[in-house]
């Protein structure tokens, strides 16, 4: 009877990845709703205008921002998204780092591997937890499974351990990078929406200048203010997005380097001790 070829293993989608996707689906419209409510009920409150009439000049920064027009709540929702997703990434990446310092964990595991204490290194992974520890523990588990396999030579075993570490890394990394694309997108979208608000404000200003006779100074200043407010909010959104994106990218690169460094140590230890 012919052997039926086994199907290639399909990586199991981590629960954290789906929960992050659900979080993004709920957070984006919620941020927009909250921004609109703030724009209407907080910034647009009559107390921020002379005589309590929104048709008059604003008396504080809240009324001034409210004069920025309909683009303002959209940009405000982007700012809220940057804040919300930054907090979410801080929590997720913090959990991925584990309970202790990653560098100290890597050094301790390397020291135990050099001494041939595989079980002790695995125990350290249980203490550390997080993505780095998960990948290292997977590699150590493979180490023990194939160590005495008579059907493979040392080179094949080392390659098998390395492949297992790479597969474990491939499962962990998407969870770390989840929702970073949203922050990266806000870098460009925030600037473009600010520019759109600027253009709308300048169109209104030039329309006032194009009227016959002396232009309405109050209306002209309102349109110029609208343009500048949208410009400022758009620049702030873009700047905040760039800072947070680079910060999280740096943290993820640090975790990736720790995984690669420890994985190399596992393979090297196996190769040197099974010559």
Automatic annotation (TrEMBL):
It is found in: Cell membrane; Membrane. Residues 132-259 form the MotA/TolQ/ExbB proton channel domain. It comes from the Bacteria. One of its GO terms (biological process) is protein import. InterPro entries: ExbB/TolQ_transport, MotA_ExbB_proton_chnl. It is a multi-pass membrane protein. Its main location: membrane. The chain crosses the membrane at residues 21-44, 64-87, 180-207, 227-248. PANTHER family: BIOPOLYMER TRANSPORT PROTEIN EXBB, PROTEIN TOLQ. Belongs to the exbB/tolQ family. This is MotA/TolQ/ExbB proton channel family protein. It comes from Mucilaginibacter hurinus.
């Amino acid at each position: 009877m012919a052997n039926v070829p086994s199907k290639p293993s399909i990586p199991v989608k981590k629960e954290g990845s789906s929960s992050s996707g659900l979080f993004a689906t709920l957070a984006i419209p919620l941020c927009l709703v909250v921004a609109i409510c703030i724009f209407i009920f907080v910034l647009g409150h009559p107390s921020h205008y002379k005589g309590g009439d929104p048709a008059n000049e604003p008396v504080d920064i809240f009324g001034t921002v409210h004069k920025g027009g309909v683009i303002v709540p959209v940009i405000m929702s982007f700012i809220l998204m940057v804040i919300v997703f930054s907090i979410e990434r801080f929590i997720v990446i913090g959990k991925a780092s584990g309970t202790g310092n990653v560098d100290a964990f890597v050094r301790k595991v390397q020291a135990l591997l050099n001494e041939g204490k595989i079980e002790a290194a695995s125990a350290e992974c249980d203490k550390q937890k997080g993505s780095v520890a998960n990948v290292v523990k997977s590699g150590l588990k493979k180490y023990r499974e194939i160590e005495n396999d008579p059907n493979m030579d040392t080179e094949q075993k080392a390659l098998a351990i390395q492949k297992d570490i790479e597969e474990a890394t491939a499962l962990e990394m998407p969870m770390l990078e989840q929702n970073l694309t949203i922050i990266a997108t806000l870098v460009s979208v925030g600037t473009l929406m600010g520019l759109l608000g600027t253009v709308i404000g300048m169109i209104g200003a030039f329309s006032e200048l194009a009227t016959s006779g002396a232009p309405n100074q109050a209306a002209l200043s309102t349109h110029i203010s609208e343009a500048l407010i949208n410009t400022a909010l758009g620049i702030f959104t873009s700047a905040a997005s760039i800072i947070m994106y680079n910060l999280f990218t740096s943290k993820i690169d640090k975790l990736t380097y720790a995984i690669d460094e420890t994985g190399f140590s596992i393979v090297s230890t196996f190769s040197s001790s099974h010559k």
